[in-house]
Design a protein that fits this description.
367 residues, alpha/beta, D-Maltodextrin-Binding Protein, domain 2, 14 helices, 11 strands, disordered N terminus
Length: 367
């Protein structure tokens, strides 16, 4: 099922990574890159770039190529959620040079003056980014981010454990699956699912609607097996759990290890996300960060990352080439149709009072 880059291209690129996909993600926060070093000191003649990204959301073999081409050493660290990334930067400042958050979090960080404006003269490969992913709502002036990958959220369930055909988010709140249900361990995704199931907009600021979603999540808690992020890989692939929500690209990895898994975008609709590369305010290695972002925009590098993580690249050349060899099911999961996307919300930044309500309710839920 996994698409492998053509042999000639692989030889040309010195492709050395083992094809293991996006899971299981290992997001302990420890350095996990092929090139490591002291984040505060130079590690090579060209210095260092400190990258903070979702777990296993990149083909780490590209770091060697980047270092060989630039002399810049890559320190690579992983996070499990936008909120984890935000909290670390808010408390510790610009300890990283490149971060890859999602749309709504980029918007929040722009509003809070936490990102540097990019010097696009250092990012000429920005021309390869599809116009559809430029100047979006989360960065309307296009000054602070370069789109990386995009995808959707759906339900993944084990057809060997659940004989029903799942079509609704309601399965996550169905007591007949008690003890077999997993749920996102972050407030935006968890509340987003509850809101969508209730028929509300995922970016609602109406307190009564958010509290209704909270009540639904409270009622779900006794039938959950666990709140998870990257742990979902082991639990669903092994059959330890039967159903949970997660990202479409990761499903395409999971199903390689367990073909009984099924992916569905629920009938109520879902979330569409864009993850993008940004530079935190005060980053020590801004020029190195821009060189790294430019490197990531290259078509050959985008193809390698797509082949590893199974998400749609914002590089239009890479996405077009990669999509040619997919079967129809894979293509629709990876490159959702306009009809599908029309039923998806894109998370936006919320007003401070709504964010405060989310924080309060999430803390109460997780007690």
């Amino acid at each position: 099922m996994k698409k492998i880059l053509p042999v000639a291209l692989a030889l040309c690129l010195f492709l050395t990574s083992a094809v293991s996909g996006c899971g299981p993600r290992s997001s302990s926060g420890a350095n996990s890159g092929a090139a490591t070093g002291n984040a505060n000191g130079e590690a090579a003649s060209g210095g260092v770039v400190n990258v903070y990204n979702w777990g296993e959301y990149i083909d780490q073999s590209i770091f060697r190529d980047f270092e060989n081409e630039t002399g810049i050493r890559v320190n690579y660290t992983e996070f499990q959620s936008n909120e984890e990334m935000y909290s670390l930067l808010k408390s510790r400042g610009a300890v990283y040079d490149v971060i890859i958050p999602s749309d709504y979090m980029i918007s929040r960080m722009i509003d809070e003056d936490m990102l540097e404006e990019l010097d696009f003269s250092n990012i000429p490969n920005y021309s390869l980014i599809d116009e559809a992913y430029k100047n979006l709502e989360y960065d309307p002036d296009g000054k602070y981010s370069v789109a990386y990958m995009t995808g959707t959220v759906g339900l993944i369930y084990n057809s060997a454990m659940i004989s029903d055909e799942i079509t609704s988010w309601g399965a996550l709140f169905d007591s007949s699956y008690s003890g077999q249900i997993l749920m996102f361990n972050n407030p935006r995704d968890a509340f987003g699912i509850a809101l969508k199931y209730l028929g509300y907009y995922q970016n609602t600021t109406v307190e009564s609607e958010i509290r209704e979603a909270y009540d639904l999540l409270v009622s779900q808690k006794p039938i959950l097996q666990a709140y998870v992020m990257d742990q979902i890989f082991d639990k669903l692939e092994s059959g330890e759990a039967a159903i949970g929500p997660y990202y479409a690209g990761d499903y395409l990895i999971m199903t390689e290890n367990n073909p009984d898994l099924v992916f569905v975008r629920p009938e109520e609709g879902s979330n569409r996300f864009v993850d993008a590369m940004s530079i935190p305010k005060g980053a020590r290695n801004k020029s190195n960060a821009e060189l790294f972002i430019d490197f990531m925009c290259r078509t050959d590098i985008a193809l390698r990352n797509m082949d590893f993580i199974w998400y749609a690249s914002a590089n239009y050349e890479a996405s077009a080439e990669f999509g040619e060899d997919l079967d129809p099911e894979e293509y629709e999961i990876m490159f959702a149709s306009e009809e599908t996307l029309a039923n998806c919300d894109v998370f936006t930044n919320l007003p401070p009072e709504t964010l405060s309500l989310y924080d309060t309710l999430w803390s109460e839920l997780k007690r």
